Amino acid sequence: MSDNDKIKKVSIIISRGSLEGVYPGLIMANGARMEGIEANLFFTFFGLYGILKKYMNDLKIATVGNPSMRIPDAKGFSMPTLLGALPGMSAFATHMMNKEMEKIDIPPVGEFIEMISDAGGKIYACKATVDMFHLKDDDFCPQMDGVITVGEFYEQAAGSQIIFT
User: Fold this and answer.
1) What is the pTM of this model?
2) Angstrom distance (rounded) from CA 106 to CA 130
3) How confident is the model over 115-164, as pLDDT tens digits?
4) Which of 24, 26, 63, 118 could potentially form a cystine with 84 if both were Cys, beta carbons 3.0 to 4.6 Å apart?
5) Which of 138, 106, 95, 116 is closest to 14 using CA atoms?
6) Is there a contact between 61 and 93 (Cβ–Cβ < 8 Å)?
7) Strand partners of residue 11
C-alpha cells in the first residue's frame, strides 16, 4: 500500500447516547490516533451524552428495540424486545457489558475521552443540538474543543473519511 492510499484523517459522527452508541466511535478514534491518523469526533443529538459531564460515565445499553441483543452473550439466544422492557434489564445488560469491557481493559467513557484528547484527537459538539437541548459550555467535559456548526464540521472533516456510528 502506498502512502497515498493510507487513511490520513477520520471524522467520526456519534449520534446515539447509549453505551453501544458511543463506544464504537471512541474505539475508532483512539485506534486512529494510535496509528498516527488525525481524528475528529462530532457529537450530535443524543450522542452528546458521551461528552456531558453529568452523564458520560453513566451511559446505559439500549435493550428495547435492539434486534441483536442476545442472552447471555453475543452467541446466546435472541432476546425479544418485550424482555428488554422489563424493569432492570437495561441496568443488568449495562452491568454485564461494563464488566466484560473492564476485563479487556477498555476504559470508562470519561477516561477514553481524555485519552483521545491527550493523543491529539479533537472533540466537538453540534451547535444545533446544543442550542436545541439548551446546553452551556460548562455542561461538557473539559476535553471538548468546541461547539461547531455542521458547516464547520465539514471544514474540519475536509480530506477525511467520514464515519457515522
Assistant:
1) 0.88
2) 28
3) 999 999 999 999 999 999 999 999 999 999 999 999 999 999 999 999 99
4) 63
5) 116
6) yes
7) 40, 162
* Domains of the chain by start residue, with CATH: 10-57+108-165 (3.40.1260.10), 62-107 (no CATH)
User: By the 8 A CB rule, do 26 and 109 touch?
Assistant: yes
Residue 71's DSSP bridge partners are 77
- CA dihedral (131, 136, 137, 143) in degrees, to 10, reads -80
Q: How far, in Å, CA of 27 to CA of 31, rounded?
A: 6
Q: Which of 53, 62, 50, 60 is nearest to 26 (CA)?
A: 50
Which whole-number Å values give the CA distances from 112 to 22, 51, 135, 163, in the listed order? 11, 11, 22, 18
Q: Are 50 and 144 in contact (CB under 8 A)?
A: no
* Site of grid cell 463506544: 23
Q: Answer whether 10's CB lies under 8 Å from 38's CB.
A: yes
How far apart CA 3 and CA 1 sit, in angstroms, is: 7
Per DSSP, which regions of 23-145 are E strands? 38-43, 70-71, 77-78, 122-126
Helix (H, G, I), strand (E, B), or coil: what is residue 91?
A: helix
